[in-house]
Design brief:
Elements: E1 2-5, E2 13-16, E3 25-30, E4 33-38, E5 44-48, H1 52-64, H2 66-82
Antiparallel strand pairs: 1-2, 2-3, 3-4, 4-5
Length: about 80
Amino acid sequence: MVTVLFRQRHGFDVRIYTKDHQPAHAHVWKGEKNIRINLKTLEVEQNRGYNTGEIRAIRRLVIEHQQLLLDVWNLIHEQGDSSG
């Protein structure tokens, strides 16, 4: 797991897991709450505990850092594929 953004606005941690599946996505944590959001479509793939306002804030955060998050996803998963 790589924490790409730590304690961002509203205390969110944005993580990308090294042994994860496609499509490209990030996990956003705050305490026990977590959400999985697609990095290309911004669709919520799974939500555990966040309300509508928090989801809007998470989407804004992901949009603001979307290219960085996609770059990290690609770097992590391309390395994993080449070590085969």
